[in-house]
Amino acid sequence: MIWGIFVLLTLVAIGIVLYPLLLSKSNTLTRGDAVPAILADQMREIQRDMDRGLISEQEAQAARLEIKKRILATTRNSEEKAGSSRNGGRVTLVVAAVLAPVIAAGYYLTMGSPEVPSMAFAARAEERAQTDEVTALAIQLRERLVSDPTGGPSEGWMLLGQTYQRMGRAADAVEAFEVVAEREDATSATFSMLAEAVAVANDGVVIPRAKLAIDRALDLDPSNPAATYFESLYYFQQEETRKAYDLLVSRLNQEEAYVPWMETYAAQINRIAAAADLPVVNLPSGPTSQPGPSAADVAAASEMNDADRAEFIRSMVSRLAERLEDEPDDLDGWMRLANAYTVLQEPDRAVEAYRKAEALLEQQPASDPRRAAVRAALERLGG
Amino acid sequence: MKRLIAGLPFIAAVIFGVFFLWGLNPDRDPNEIPSVLISQPAPAFDLDPVPGLETPGLARSDLVGNERPVVVNVFASWCVPCRAEHAVLTRFVEREGMRLFGINYKDKPEDAVKWLNDLGNPYERIGSDLSGRTGIEWGLSGVPETFIVDGDGTVLFRYVGPVVGPDAVERFTQALKQAGALPKGAAS
Amino acid sequence: MRQLIFAFCIGLFPFAANAVEPDEMLTDPVLEQRAREISKDLRCVVCQNQDIDSSNAGVARDLRLLVRERLVVGDSDAEVIEYIRARYGDYVLLKPPLEPATYALWFAPIAFVLIGVFVGGGLLMSRRKQEAFEDLGSEDENTVSEILRQNEAGDAS
Amino acid sequence: MVPEIGHFALALALALALVQSVLPIAGASRRNAVWMKSAQATAIGQVLFVAIAFAALMQAFIVSDFTVRNVVENSHSLKPMLYKVAGTWGSHEGSLLLWILILAVFGAGVAWFGSNIPAETKARTLSVQAWISVGFLSFLLLTSNPFERVFPPPLDGNDLNPLLQDMGLAMHPPLLYFGYVGFSIVFSFAVAALLEGRVDPAWARWVRPWTLAAWVSLTAGIALGSWWAYYELGWGGWWFWDPVENVSFMPWLLGTALLHSAIVTEKRDAFKSWTILLAILTFSLSLLGTFIVRSGLLTSVHAFAVDPERGLYILGLLAVSIGGSLALYAWRAPEMEPGGLFRPISREAGLLVNNLILAAATGTVLFGTLYPLILEAITGDKISVGPPFFNAAFIPMMLALVVFMGLGPFLSWKRADIAGLLDRIRFVVVLAFIAALAAWYLLNGGPIMAYLAILGAAWLLFATLREWALRIRLFEVPLAESARRARNLPRASHGMTLAHAGVAVLMMGMIGSTGWKSEEIVFAAPGTEVTIAGFDITFEGATQVQGPNYIADRGTLVVRRDGELVTTLFPERRYYPVAESQTTESAIRSTLAGDLYTSIATPASDQVNNAGAWTLRILYEPLVNLIWIGSILLVIGGCLSLSDRRLRVGAPRRAKQPASDAVPAE
Q1: Across the interface, do C131 and D664 touch by the CB < 8 Å criterion?
Q2: Residues of C in Cβ contact (< 8 Å) with A30
Q3: Which of A2, A8, A11, A31 to mutate to test the interface with D (most CBs of D within 10 A)?
Q4: What is the DSSP letter of A187?
Q5: D507 and D558 both lie in a single domain
Q6: Are D558 and D531 in contact (CB under 8 A)?
Q7: A112, D42: Cβ pair inside 8 Å?
Q8: For the segment C14-51, what is each residue's pLDDT rounded down to a tens digit?
């Protein structure tokens, strides 16, 4: 379709260039024709002015004389050149008619994006509805967590924080993560997400408060890639470029196989490298989609725009579910999924997920607090 | 003569063109406002501390008689670029031994206190300029601005806008070194 | 377009203010009038090309207050302007002072007018000689009237 | 898909422009009729393709297609439809596309309507026009592509600046561009004439309608911009001598000079090289304006993002077009024969003075606008050149101009009869003085300059009317005869009368609103009363109202005079959350005698604010509407001249009928 229109436009352009070939040869207007017409009009104008009494007979006479002289001059001038008009050069015209579309097509093929579809705002209602839904869900989730007398499950707060973060409401995300950060069950990821949210809330600056969270995150898990990422960002902002660079590169080198966050790492390393004239890194191309939101996804989310974030949120729950299909032994994963479904008000699925978690908990010591949590949840859900 | 007159517009156009080319120099900021303070004594002022902070207030007398030049930074919690700059200034204080004084410009004290608690407080002294009058004395055109003041109270350098990014930091570092504001043997 | 800069000002300064406000004004109408006039000649340093009298920026308000303060103390208009200039330099004066650096600016209009007088006068003098009336020869006269006749239809309406 | 069609159409337009920039002019020098004729088709083809591109961009704005980066950055789904449409030219890229569209429209206009222009002249002119097209199309495509795509698209746009969400401003750029860019074709005519080495009365006649069309649009555009500033910015000013205003004003001043000097060229075959120079310089100043607005060269309040690469590209275009044309001028102009002779007191001399004053005024504005840059380049000092300078330098020149404006139409060509002239204007001079003295007596105060200006405006108005009365012999012959004479006058003559009278009216508006403006600024709580210019205004409080994409504080002001209700005004202060900016919507009671102008704001001081008070700014601007009325008169006058039949003297048909001595019936 689009190429058909391009062809049509091109044909029109070719037709336009070739059009003079259709014209008759003789009707070229020359100066000798055009100028006296105007001068004659001026003669009439003088007559009219005289009739109106605006100029005297003597003035009119002088003016007429001037114009007559001009008419004579024009006639003589054009007589000299008359008759030399040619009608050749048709080949040139054809060449131009061919060349013009070639230039246009050459430009367009390098600069155009014919593959990108148009998307009118009105046609994207579904996309919007999903975003609105996420917003509504976040509100519901928050209400439930706040009204929970036990302060709400940490997983719920984490989910809320991540949702806020992806909605671009970093300050709210900080609040949510901080609830968990003060609890016993805070993990390394809790702190690295908190650090990210704090940084995003402060225009991307890793302020001391964020640095504290990073330190905690690395204490709990020195291999947390998101924490290292933000630690590096901190040093980068402190103008300690070399340190920032080395941190990222050494963490990258610890991995043997491809993991998705490497893309983010590589991008940041190369940014630093460009600023500080250091060698760039090239990632071996790996699988492009790995299930589950990883820490680096979170890091990447900070560089996303709002729309990307919205997309990210929507897919989060389903990605988690998909991942758990492949990794059915992830206890915390099932807990988180169950919680998410609870919030999404899909009790059946929530129950199902809690059952999976319950099964896995069989292998855990009886004192594991998660047992109680799952039992309580199942009771609430009537499962 | 006639030819000369006919050529005048062309010559004028070329002259204007040269000025335009100069004006397009990317290093030139048409919004930059020159300072009259450079090489002049720092203005007289005496500011109270920010209520709720333990950091003492700032007056002109604090800028005089120091063995090394000191840095005066005008900041405010409502100023977005100040956050980014804060980290850089903190580093200069912690790592390079720069002495930093602050003027808290038209800021609510409680906001300023919270801001400094969040970000840390690298300032030796902070004067609270609630009315903005001291800002005018310094010829302030926006926040943040950073000055280097010599031991005898002469303003040596002024930086308009946040000292953020390699170019700005480089310029600022150069100015600090030139002024001798960093202790000898300091790192970097 | 001017207001785009306001947005900029609001970003830079905490309190989105307005142009002159009643609480800034002096009770003495003569002094107030002088203050307004002075304010119109002072440039708001954050809002490009705007005088402090109409600027909404916070610093413009501070400057307006300062101008009035100086007037109350008894400064002359020139002294007030000098006071501000001492802090912000020539840049704040919307009416550049007459000094060597601005001679070219201030004398340019006069120079332009003088050039005009010179060129115009020269032209008028050179063109004033009386034109000789030379009638066309009869042959030319015929050519012309033939052409005129051909073109008569062109516009007859 | 649609944006891609637009993009491709632009590429085709560039290709056609390339053909048009070479073939016709080569045809003109080699006398090849086919090549020359190709200009007409390509010129019309160009406008077709650029219009397709423009329509494609507009469609993207209308449906909020956020796969187009330009739409994302300058629109929002919630924006009212009208401003979505206006968003098409709200950005640098879109406005440049509009610029190019208008460029193509003028080229096509000459191709379509210029049937009375000889083929050679037309071919050269259109080729030169195509050079400009090639320059700007390549600029657009290489540095500022309006059809850049984003995929996946963001959910919503970043909004257009709320200040631009205003009818006046939405229409202001297209009109202004029509003026700016319209002078391009005059420029092309001038360069073609230089290449051809000939300028004559016929040339002036061919150029005149285009000059007029451009001038009328520019006049309307500037007036509309000024009007917008007046009611949108909230303090009742209408001209600020901002660099951006200046760069649109300079082509207007020179364009006005060109309009007048071309008359001399047309009537008397004189001022030829001067007219050519004006034609080149007028468009050069338009280009300069484009450059300044888009390069960030000067500190100005301009809407376009600054990009040094773009600045360099436009400077390159400027160097080629302005430098090239002026070099050509320096080379060819001295060879032009001087035109007819005239006496120091004659219509020619009057127009010469008019031109010199306008040129000096343009030079002053140009110099004042660029002086800070020049000084900074030379000494590094930064200074400001503001309204006080421009007022001091510009106003006296304009007053001198007004004197000659009144005088000029009385003068006859070649040499005027001084005694007769004095006889005719004596009465007018006396009347003007009486008017000024009456104003002095009645108004009792105000600046001396204002009275001088009143004298000037009165002189101009009376002189213009007197001259018109003379033409139709008003009161000398029966009224019916006068009416017949008025009908028979060429439209251009009425046009001149209207335009000159418009200037007088405009001046009165300016004088009234600057010299006798009154102002009250108060903190108002509900119930506060303010008295200004005979109006008693009661503030009844403010409420918050929700607009389509803004929240506003709306004040209610009841206006009474002598106890009787006059009107109720609702000034607003709007906050646009998406764009995070505020606008002032003043409420104005407009009458011919003056505007009661009100605006509302939140007080700067928290203390006052917390006490529930608002800052009310109430102005009375006497006669301010005369500024717009005068501008409208100027525009109507221009349009009348444009409709003059003489501008369309057709191509000669070889007359078959015998010559007749009869005066053609009119």
Answers
A1: no
A2: none
A3: A31
A4: -
A5: no
A6: no
A7: no
A8: 334 467 788 888 888 889 989 999 998 898 877 667 88
Is the CATH number of domain B35-179 3.40.50.1980? no
How large is the angle between the packed helices D625-642 and D201-232, nearest 10 degrees?
160
Select the more confidently predicted residue: D206 or A300: D206
Q: Are C144 and A40 an interchain contact pair (Cβ–Cβ within 8 Å)? A: no
CATH number at residue C66: 1.10.8.640
Q: What residues make up the domain containing D535?
A: 518-626
**Interchain CB distance below 8 Å, B6 and D284:** no
Question: Structure tokens of D350?
Answer: 């009057």
A41 and C151 in contact by Cβ < 8 A? yes
Count of CB atoms situated within 10 Å of the CB of C131: 14
Q: Which residue has the tokens 């006919």?
A: B6
**Has residue D558 been placed in a domain?**
yes
Q: D66 and chain A: CB distance < 8 Å anywhere?
A: yes
pLDDT, tens digit, for every residue of A74-120? Answer: 777 665 554 445 557 788 889 999 999 999 999 999 998 888 888 88
Listed as own residue / partner, the contacts of A135-143 with beta carbons closer than 8 Å and 24 or more positions apart are: A135/A167, A137/A163, A137/A343, A137/A344, A138/A163, A138/A164, A138/A167, A140/A343, A140/A345, A141/A343, A142/A176
Burial of A142: CB neighbours in 10 Å, binned 0-12, 13-18, 19+: buried
Q: Does A237 touch chain B (CB under 8 A)?
A: yes
Q: Which of D300, D582, D583 is nearest residue C48 as measured by Cβ atoms?
A: D300
Phi and psi of D573, rounded to 5°?
Answer: -120, 115
Give residue D250's pLDDT.
95
Counted across chains C and D, CB pairs separated by less than 8 A come out at 210
Question: pLDDT digits over D245-294, tens only?
Answer: 888 999 999 999 999 999 999 988 888 989 999 999 999 999 998 888 88
In a domain, D331, yes or no: yes
On whether residue C81 sits in a domain, the answer given is: yes
Residues of C in contact with B79 (CB under 8 A): 12
pLDDT digits (tens, 9 = 90+) for D55-80: 999 999 999 999 999 999 888 888 88
Asked if residue C79 and residue C8 are part of one domain, the reply reads yes
- Distance from C-alpha of D66 to C-alpha of D447, rounded to nearest angstrom: 55
Q: Is D72 on the interface with A (CB under 8 A)?
A: no
Residues C22 and C71 reside in one and the same domain:
yes
Q: Does the pLDDT at position D235 exceed 80?
A: no
Whether residues C59 and B135 touch (CB distance < 8 A) is answered with yes
Note the pLDDT tens digit of each residue in D371-403. 988 998 998 888 889 899 999 999 999 999 999
pLDDT at D299: 58
Closest chain D residue to the Cα of A56, Cα to Cα: D412
Predicted-complex ipTM score: 0.84
> Which range, of A204-218, B15-29, C44-58, D477-491, averages the lowest pLDDT?
C44-58
Identify the domain containing residue C71 by its residue range: 2-92
* CA neighbor of B116 nearest in space, from B47, B45, B51, B182: B51
Domain boundaries, chain B: 35-179
Substitution target from C9, C65, C66, C91 for chain B, most B beta carbons within 10 A: C91
Q: Contact at 8 Å (CB) between D459 and D428? A: yes
How far is the CA of D167 from the CAs of D87, D171, D227, D552, D636, in angstroms? 12, 6, 11, 18, 21
Q: Does D326 contact chain C (CB < 8 Å)?
A: no
Q: What is the mean pLDDT of residues D588-617?
A: 86
Domain identity same for C76 and C14 = yes
CB pairs under 8 A between A and D: 234
**Residue corresponding to tokens 């199309």:** D137
Domains of chain A (ranges, CATH numbers): 126-306 (1.25.40.10), 328-383 (no CATH)
CB-based contact B17 D311, cutoff 8 Å:
no
Task: Specify whether C119 is located in the same domain as C56.
Answer: no
- Would C157 be classed as within a structural domain? no
Measured between beta carbons, the chain D residues lying within 8 angstroms of C127 are: 270, 338, 341-343, 348
Assess whether pLDDT exceeds 90 at residue D657.
no
